[in-house]
Amino acid sequence: MNKSDVRRLLESVKDGRMGIEEASKQIEDLPYKDLGFAKVDNHREIRVGYPEVVYCAGKTVKQVKDTIQFMLTKENNILATRANEEMYQAVKEICPEAGYNSLGRVITIRKREEPLTDSYIAIVAAGTSDLPVVEEAAETASLLGNRVEKIVDVGVAGIHRLFSKMEVIRGAKVVIVVAGMEGALASVIGGLVDKPVIAVPTSVGYGANFGGLAALLSMLNSCAGGVSVVNIDNGFGAAYNASIINKL
Amino acid sequence: MNKSDVRRLLESVKDGRMGIEEASKQIEDLPYKDLGFAKVDNHREIRVGYPEVVYCAGKTVKQVKDTIQFMLTKENNILATRANEEMYQAVKEICPEAGYNSLGRVITIRKREEPLTDSYIAIVAAGTSDLPVVEEAAETASLLGNRVEKIVDVGVAGIHRLFSKMEVIRGAKVVIVVAGMEGALASVIGGLVDKPVIAVPTSVGYGANFGGLAALLSMLNSCAGGVSVVNIDNGFGAAYNASIINKL
Amino acid sequence: MNKSDVRRLLESVKDGRMGIEEASKQIEDLPYKDLGFAKVDNHREIRVGYPEVVYCAGKTVKQVKDTIQFMLTKENNILATRANEEMYQAVKEICPEAGYNSLGRVITIRKREEPLTDSYIAIVAAGTSDLPVVEEAAETASLLGNRVEKIVDVGVAGIHRLFSKMEVIRGAKVVIVVAGMEGALASVIGGLVDKPVIAVPTSVGYGANFGGLAALLSMLNSCAGGVSVVNIDNGFGAAYNASIINKL
Amino acid sequence: MNKSDVRRLLESVKDGRMGIEEASKQIEDLPYKDLGFAKVDNHREIRVGYPEVVYCAGKTVKQVKDTIQFMLTKENNILATRANEEMYQAVKEICPEAGYNSLGRVITIRKREEPLTDSYIAIVAAGTSDLPVVEEAAETASLLGNRVEKIVDVGVAGIHRLFSKMEVIRGAKVVIVVAGMEGALASVIGGLVDKPVIAVPTSVGYGANFGGLAALLSMLNSCAGGVSVVNIDNGFGAAYNASIINKL
Amino acid sequence: MNKSDVRRLLESVKDGRMGIEEASKQIEDLPYKDLGFAKVDNHREIRVGYPEVVYCAGKTVKQVKDTIQFMLTKENNILATRANEEMYQAVKEICPEAGYNSLGRVITIRKREEPLTDSYIAIVAAGTSDLPVVEEAAETASLLGNRVEKIVDVGVAGIHRLFSKMEVIRGAKVVIVVAGMEGALASVIGGLVDKPVIAVPTSVGYGANFGGLAALLSMLNSCAGGVSVVNIDNGFGAAYNASIINKL
Amino acid sequence: MNKSDVRRLLESVKDGRMGIEEASKQIEDLPYKDLGFAKVDNHREIRVGYPEVVYCAGKTVKQVKDTIQFMLTKENNILATRANEEMYQAVKEICPEAGYNSLGRVITIRKREEPLTDSYIAIVAAGTSDLPVVEEAAETASLLGNRVEKIVDVGVAGIHRLFSKMEVIRGAKVVIVVAGMEGALASVIGGLVDKPVIAVPTSVGYGANFGGLAALLSMLNSCAGGVSVVNIDNGFGAAYNASIINKL
Amino acid sequence: MNKSDVRRLLESVKDGRMGIEEASKQIEDLPYKDLGFAKVDNHREIRVGYPEVVYCAGKTVKQVKDTIQFMLTKENNILATRANEEMYQAVKEICPEAGYNSLGRVITIRKREEPLTDSYIAIVAAGTSDLPVVEEAAETASLLGNRVEKIVDVGVAGIHRLFSKMEVIRGAKVVIVVAGMEGALASVIGGLVDKPVIAVPTSVGYGANFGGLAALLSMLNSCAGGVSVVNIDNGFGAAYNASIINKL
Amino acid sequence: MNKSDVRRLLESVKDGRMGIEEASKQIEDLPYKDLGFAKVDNHREIRVGYPEVVYCAGKTVKQVKDTIQFMLTKENNILATRANEEMYQAVKEICPEAGYNSLGRVITIRKREEPLTDSYIAIVAAGTSDLPVVEEAAETASLLGNRVEKIVDVGVAGIHRLFSKMEVIRGAKVVIVVAGMEGALASVIGGLVDKPVIAVPTSVGYGANFGGLAALLSMLNSCAGGVSVVNIDNGFGAAYNASIINKL
């Protein structure tokens, strides 16, 4: 609502074309509309199609259940990350159609199936130990309406395995690279594709890995262009980010 | 294609069952198609339009000059980052049309002007001290053929300044957020737009900033979706990344 | 007691106006009175109204119970922080009126109800996962006789939620900001109010959060004035500090 | 402007008591007024009496001079921190009455002298090497209109020196403690006063001091209540914070 | 070999100027010979004699069992590191001859006994707490076909114990030094032998040991030549490395 | 045994005054005697009176029991640190007179009572949570034959409590200061006594304490002379060190 | 002055045996005497024989000169550490007999020669690069009246060099070990002597040395008993500490 | 010399077959021979062929010159690392045939040319900025008598460049990998060769590189077997290590 809209509204009031009640309501909405963040509001939380997201770590089973019960009153899909088996069982009681990816620790509730994108997100992982992060990312991307291709166990120690999968990686619109230990896979892929690469360091490893710090620093210092990084083990964040890009 | 496949193919050629054209095509695909990285080669280094990039930090003036002299023999645009005044003077001797952004410490040589994208990259910075990184990013994005909008000095300590610029930020296809100190700007913008946000922590600050570490960790832990991070002060990397996204 | 007081006392002794017993007692008190730390003693530990505080982490159930049993012989209110359910049960046996905030892990024993302050402390938290720290702070502030207003789940990723609560935040005499992850909330609020802001980083988050380090560094580097910081998860310390300011 | 205000305004327009131009203008102002951050705006940057602040580190002499030249067109006092001698000389050219505290690296321009507070801020420092931070804090507090008392060289290695100054420290409304090395002074003072203590770790020291990290961690872990912490060497922040408290 | 080379080759085949055998060989060499990594493939994963390795940490018992079941279909020896008792029991069900070193947490399956090397690897450890790493290294080295000598409990605090074992240490072709705490043993041995020394820091210790960081930094900064370092507790890596050297 | 001793020995052999057996034995002893470290050997491990020490952390109950069973065959006192209740029960089976300090997690077996030193070691601790380290130190010092005085709960937050105990602290020949959190106690005591002060940082605390790192750095940066530091929670090391000094 | 002293004093006043002036003065002295820290005062700063110490780092030449000029009015020896050549020249102007150890960066002014101790302090250093710290320690120890023996370049990489000096090291009453890089020398010596060992990590080294952190951690984790540690490069602190022990 | 050797010697003395002088001399040699470190002595420092090594960092020009002057009296080759131009000029005065590699900052003095090994050491570097470390390694390896092959600018961002050099890398007996930034090259090469790989992290990079820490951690966590690591920028150490292996 810009300056002329306001004028026109006031003229309508003056002319009696619009009642005070209606005008008052429109004006009260202004702060959000004009500042523009109401769109976020609408976009992220209200508009049907975008999932409601619950981060379950550090929450009790009851808290998770109650939150989802409330969400079920709306029409959005629901995504609960870092959810354990017990949480899933509790959710299932109130929503039998809830799905659970035990590896990715993700509960999904699909209230409406969205059409998938034509372009796809490639999720590439160095080793099988990175699978929990891969699955969290894949479930997130999928619920957000993206087509997903997973390529696992193509770590740089056996680089020919990676090359045999380059076709499918190159075909993606955006690539998520998931790797722990030294995280070198992000740099290698960053040098081989000219698509945006979102790197997810994982806490897989031990000793001087320091809970994923080694992979994180490695990815931040990538000598390859086009690589950006999200938090350690943050499969959800990478997929959310990738989804925005995939839908551009 | 294994040994016997090759033999069979050759026998078909010998027998005249397969034409040389067809056989040739199958063989040519072998090394590269299967591995696929030849495209990168073409894409990044050979295809005209992509700039040659020199990272000048830790190089001598002579090394920078020699490298650029060699690059001048090709037809690509040239971008030299982290270049000091002295390096620029040396380059100017061999290439009088070279430009220099002293704030961003970037030398640019435009051998062919590319048409700019319709969509633009917004580069948003918290404070005036972040300008060197902003300029490095802007020069890079521009040389890569992107339209750029710069919005500076909208740090969260005076958040109304940010809101008055939301329109132009929201209009971008991809947003680069440059911030030092506590780097909170990335989270706030990440919550206000639904475009990909590439966060660049800067080393601006002191004490417990630890050379940009505070902003880096802050951005990696952003509670807002859609935010990914590049290395501290890495304006080039953010712009390179943003350019890939902007051209999707 | 200054120089002339001492002289006068000695003259009283010489004149026989004061007995040696009495003078001796006054002189023996000198070191503490003159240095002033007796006041601390009186203030913090003896004066009725100030609670006795037990930090239960790392103590056995028996140690906590014994300590509180001893404290019950005095007239002060009692606050036991970081107390688990089992400790509370043990305390309840010896003091049935003891209260327990299970979220904040705080046992409170109110032996005399203090009148609350007119001004209030606002405790603002980014997310529901920060609630344990919020509750610890709220219980502490309340037992210290402060009126408290809690505002939860106003993290910067949805900044409009924060704005709808600015009225009550601005009305406080001192503001406690509780936030994990990137801790950006402290900077944003610091820029919006001109009251002292005490920031409490929480260990909520994962990966490069490093147990609250990210939020801590973020808050220490806040670009907004008026923000000071206490230890990670230290709701008690923030409230104690806020109480001192609120009662100035 | 609340709901009934809006209604009344609309009725005035309808009744013709208020022109559309005027009403339109009032409505356009809404977003800022209702959200309340316009007050910040007014308060911090527009209201005479609050100084304009320039953080000079990382700025060129010219940038500092230009910024201050612009500020001189307003009526506020001006404070430039982390300013070197050369910057001061440049400022002096355009503002001969500018003052310079070379130890604290602070330029001050007093366009109007504010009455000082009755209560005072005590700035207590462990050693003479902490003086630059003390001076930055003192100049800031003073320009903000606070009475200041400085107590220097009372480090805990000779704790009797501290005790002889306790009277003046206890008399303050708020205490700033400046200490490097192990920063123990903050805990000791925190245990001796019941006023808010703002601790400033300094980078004074060497080796395992790690640029002030030792003092910072020490102060954050203070076993004494009532201690909060600002960034390493941040005398300005401590004073700004103390000023807010002192004026409550 | 470019397009025209291929064409010419095919024409030669068609014309009968080149035999199929010769042409086949030239073509087969294309993908791998030019790139060269096929040898790795053959060497590490296909050639009988090299063990298959499973890193069990972070895997479920079922995952370990399934992986090994698959490996049993090949002819290689199998090594499963970081395997717990439960994993071993599961493996034993499908392969009764599987061995288990409970201290080293290593499952070994020997499908063909390789002849041991003449030269041996000395594995020297500072204390008995380092034994798990020693055993992991010893099992690995042994399965890779190396003769191994273990020398334990020769930490530098009682250096005469080390000297009495120097003969056997000096006799090795390569020396693995395993030490936690301050890791000084690597430097001392590095100064006493002129064989390659591979240092393995262990997480043995507490406090400022920081999970092996102290020993790691110590070993990286060794003042003795000839010392290189692997990850904390990485007995497998040290042995794998030593085996390569021992077989040179 | 110097050159002339050797000559004399050889002459005795030549002259038949000494048998080859005896001479051979004396020569074989040379390496240790001449280098001097045999004394250590004798001193620390063989000479009756010095305890045998077992560090139980990371050992199994059986390993601890077996080690002590072996030690029981010698005449030395035995000290087992970091021992849990279960280990103690196992040891008690083979040595009913074994004592156990459950707070300090120390098993002691006194095979001969040594006379205590006249001078004493003062062990001063900031809080009751530091007691486990205090007890480990006290048991160690006592078994090594030192008189010990414990002064607990004299943290700097209530410094008058410390002053009331200064007499006994000053009377010691060497002072052990045990403190967690910010570890300021070491500096304060270091400034008040002129005896050697051995500081033991403890892991007591949370958040930015980082497992004792805050106290460790604080103590290393102590502004008071005469303070040296041992590892975090290392009560044994402090007492061993203090015992050496106390017996000088 | 205890209770009966006070009574007696008051009785003297009452009886007229002591004037009010005199009694007043004695009472005013009480706080310091009774608390006992006056002794420190007397001991460290007033008693002739103990040097005045100036830490010059971060001070201007003028500040150093002024401080020493003031000190020259007393009768104590003077020690200025971390002093550069320019500072020395300035001091020499006002005190021509001032000495300067350029390697150790120490200015010494001997106003009275103290008799040296019979027992000596051994200062042992790993390499010649550690000499600045050795010299700082040696000058300090010497000025404090200790006999000193320096043993340099006996790093563990050539351990036989150390053994040839064990006699003189064992002869000391207290041993200072100075080492950078991996700092292993402290552990080796700690295992060979049964005297108190004070370890000084130095910042000598590079890379993962992290300014002395590697040696610091190494020494804190020493597996040898009897080793305590001071700050990185803190030769003064080690010598001050050693002097206290040497004079016990 | 073992037990029976000693007996035999004594019998020879008794029988008069060996003179006391000779026997005495043999016995005096015992400590070193039997303990074996005399060999080290001989090997490293005395045996002609092994170079004398001077680490020049932190030394004055005069110290370097004097050290080398002394070394020139022996017959060994001389290697001075981390030497600046000024040091070289000083050395040249006393030894005109001294060579200087300004990039590698290495002075070499060849007093006798050793025959080179048949096998060679491959030194592979990611970028041209790593050249100083490459040169230091190459000069060291060469002076130690090794044939060296340098392969530079084959970083993983353009992995095809690496593949075109695999032949020469695979041909080496031992491979040194030099890389800064994220150090991924070590893992990639480790996966492609089955020779020992010594990884040298370099400090090349900025921001979250933290002076080489990122590359260091990356290399330590390498997912490829056969990789061990030396200190950051330690080209000398890598080459020394590689030389030992190359000569096995």
From TrEMBL, chains A, B, C, D, E, F, G, H:
Residues 119-248 form the PurE domain. GO terms for molecular function: hydrolase activity. GO terms for biological process: 'de novo' IMP biosynthetic process. InterPro entries: P2CMN_synthase_LarB, PurE_dom. It holds the Pfam family AIRC. PANTHER family: PHOSPHORIBOSYLAMINOIMIDAZOLE CARBOXYLASE-RELATED, SLL1489 PROTEIN. This is 1-(5-phosphoribosyl)-5-amino-4-imidazole-carboxylate (AIR) carboxylase.
